[in-house]
Design brief:
With about 425 residues, the protein is mostly helical. It contains 17 helices and no strands.
């Protein structure tokens, strides 16, 4: 009876096939995957040492950074063509680039594995470098096919993918952790990526005969590559800098302070990113629609901007206060005594992540007023802040100063971003100028 009432209520607020229903489907998949990760984290921190987490976050940071390039960002264009035949050819173009890029990365890592291992100061990473192209390739395949299913409005497939990947990854990690396999975190990650990419390929093979029954036409692929060239030219730099900004600290911590410190930072980053990737992204989805509508009607979007910021303040303020006052104690209680340092990192980064929470939800203003270059400048400034903070820590030979500097400099960048987006939201469109 209760289940029927829940379904009836869901259909009332989000009828089947509506925009709300599609967003809710994707959000549900993301929420379930995030909840699984949150629930099992206290178990993982008791099965694995900080050094094991350090190796894991180093591997995932390198893989995630390189994965930005794997499709040439042409997967982002799959939803745009009017004809499915063009979209299918964009899928093929993405697959072609994935193949070439994976082979190039494999060659480079095989030739320079010793140098990479020496640079990051973790000899245990060398073996896993040879498997990194597999992770990169699987990520590219999953992203490409996911955009195809979104084009066909089969959002449930993408939602299931996130849940399946989380379940497989966590199951393998827990099982190997119980068997005291120190590299179980990486093995679980790779298993999740491989199985999900196979799931996508099989699903598309059964449903989309058009892809399986047509050959590669390189003339058509070249035409589409030129037509959608703005994606690799403009989207790669912005996305790569954004990804690099998030992943560089882990790499540098591993290189200069060792895998344990990288593991502490990795757990902090993983924990604090949860509200950003779920709550802030959900708010951003609503914000995009509302702010675009108000901007088109009035030429400015001050009212909705202030309303969203006030609403987020009710979430961010308690979040920051809790971490500032009891970050280390909370981390020890949840993750175990060995993770006190990660809690201290969370305290130092609390304001930075709070302002980042605001910025992630409101930065769509740059796109609404067609000033995308400003977003690139913000990402560039944040990257400089990361390198500056790490330079301070390395110079003083103290990782606490590195994290504290990152918290201060990052907070300043995102505070400036908020002021900037607010001014753009308030100024009528006719008066907006490029600096």
């Amino acid at each position: 009876m209760l289940i029927k009432k829940i379904r009836k209520f869901r259909l009332k607020i989000a009828p089947h096939g509506s925009f709300r229903a599609n967003v809710l489907t994707l959000m549900t998949g993301t929420a379930v995957a995030q909840l699984i990760a949150i629930f099992v984290s206290p178990f993982l921190t008791r099965f694995y040492l900080p050094e094991d987490f350090g190796l894991f976050v180093l591997y995932t940071s390198m893989s995630t950074t390189l994965s930005v390039l794997v499709t040439g960002r042409y997967d982002q264009a799959i939803m745009l063509p009017k004809e499915d035949s063009d979209a299918i050819n964009l899928v093929k173009l993405s697959f072609f680039i994935i193949t070439i890029f994976t082979l190039c990365v494999s060659f480079i890592l095989c030739c320079f594995s010793s140098f990479v291992t020496s640079f990051f100061g973790n000899k245990n990473i060398e073996f896993w470098l040879y498997l990194m192209p597999v992770s990169i390739c699987c990520t590219g395949i999953s992203s490409t096919i996911s955009y195809w299913f979104n084009r066909k409005k089969q959002f449930s497939v993408s939602a299931k993918r996130r849940v399946i990947q989380a379940i497989i990854m966590i199951s393998v990690q827990i099982m190997l952790g119980m068997l005291h396999v120190s590299t179980g975190l990486i093995i679980g990650w790779i298993c999740g990526e491989i199985i999900v990419s196979l799931y996508f390929v099989v699903s598309m093979s059964f449903q989309e005969k058009l892809l399986m029954n047509t050959n590669f036409n390189f003339r058509v692929l070249r035409k589409l590559a030129v037509e959608y060239k703005r994606f690799p030219i403009y989207d790669i730099p912005t996305t790569f800098i954004h990804t690099l900004t998030n992943q560089v600290p882990v790499m540098l911590f591993s290189s200069y302070f060792g895998p344990a410190v990288a593991g502490f930072y990795g757990l902090t980053q993983r924990t604090l990113n949860v509200p950003i990737t779920f709550v802030a992204q959900s708010v951003a989805d609503v914000f995009k629609q509302k702010v675009s509508e108000e901007y088109l009607q009035r030429g400015s979007c001050q009212n909705i901007y202030i309303k969203i910021v006030k609403g987020l303040l009710l979430i961010v303020l308690p979040f920051c206060l809790v971490l500032l006052l009891g970050g280390p104690s909370i981390f020890v209680l949840i993750f175990g005594d060995e993770w006190w340092i990660a809690g201290q990192f969370a305290r130092f980064l609390s304001i930075y992540y709070g302002l980042r929470f605001f910025a992630n939800a409101t930065s769509y203003i740059f796109f609404v007023v067609q000033k995308q270059q400003y977003n690139l400048w913000i990402q560039g400034a944040m990257l400089f802040a990361v390198f500056g903070a790490m330079s301070v820590g390395v110079y003083l030979k103290n990782y606490y100063f590195a994290v504290l500097s990152l918290g201060i400099l990052g907070a300043l960048v995102y505070a400036f971003c908020l002021v900037w987006t607010y001014k753009l939201a308030c100024v009528p469109c006719a008066q907006k100028q490029v600096f």
